[in-house]
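Sequence in, structure out. Go.
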Amino acid sequence: MASKHIFISAGELSGDIHGGNLVAAIRKKQPEIRISAIGGDNMSSAGAHLLYHIRETSFMGFAEVVKHLPFIYKLWEKTLRYIDQTKPDLVVLIDYPGFNLRLARAITKRNIPVVYYISPQVWAWHQSRVKKIKKYTRMVLCILPFEEDWLKNHGVNAHFVGHPLIDQVAKIRAINPVSESIKPENATPYIGLFPGSRKQEVQRHLPVMLKAVHQLKENYPDLHVAVSIAPDIDMSAYEKENTRVWIHWLRNQNHRIMQSAGLLIMSSGTATLEATLFQTPLIVIYRLSNISYLMGRLLVKVPFISIANLIADEKGITELIQHDATVDNIVKEAEALLDNSEYRDQMIQFLSIVTGKLGESGASGRAAEMILKFL
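Output:
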């Protein structure tokens, strides 16, 4: 009897991280299963054969999507051709709703079951998409605690499995409980900058972040800064313009920066939840092209953009969005978190409460178990 075949579609870095954990968990339970994917290095290392790498598929915003339409069409055609040739027994979709929801419809028409892992944030914006999720998926596996009830109320077969980052962070803490090696001696404060994992995010966030820390350096002469460089992002131009001994450019060192830093200035995204689990105070910023921002304001249905604030249903982390993401506003909030111990302690307590709401460890294993039931 031929081994079963699962196809997984994850279009960006956060999806690849979760997808890598999922692939590893599936293969641990059933090593003979064949897994192919649109994914990245994490999924490939775990044993998935890549049809496309996420470095080709990770773009954001309305304007950027329009610019990449020829590539998206090519990706679409090649993916469906591959599905028709290989006829997988199950397709698992990870977030990336613009592409994956269309794929869910095409897959369902081919009578192949579809499971959605890492639900699209339809509760936040584009709520009409929940009808497609209900129609074209057999099951949705949620990683945020409030998603299960919201989706069930809209007729979706949804299950909360817990957040896979809990296991990841626990493993890192066990291996390296105190990460001081990347923090220079007498670096006080030590600030981590996370401009994003996409080229467009870096272009919009990094210049304002760097200006802010240059301004902070005037008041904190011992300040050192670590800039997180995401995989497949070229920051050489920024490095040449900012050759200072107190600015450190670190690739693939996210967790060590989060452990070592006293404050993080971050682009909104999955990394902010990792910072929450490390209990490191943070400031969240986000900038889009004007057209993407205006469209977002019409579509977004939630009061916050950072996941921790959404889970808590209150603002425990300052969010500086679009025109509020200025150098002066970043500096003001950074100084408050660095100088006001009571304010800082309040945020750490908030991050601890949010962590407690994210469920128990073992999310990837539970997701793998439920997915394998379809086979």
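Check: DSSP finds 17 helices and 13 strands in the chain. The mean pLDDT is 89.
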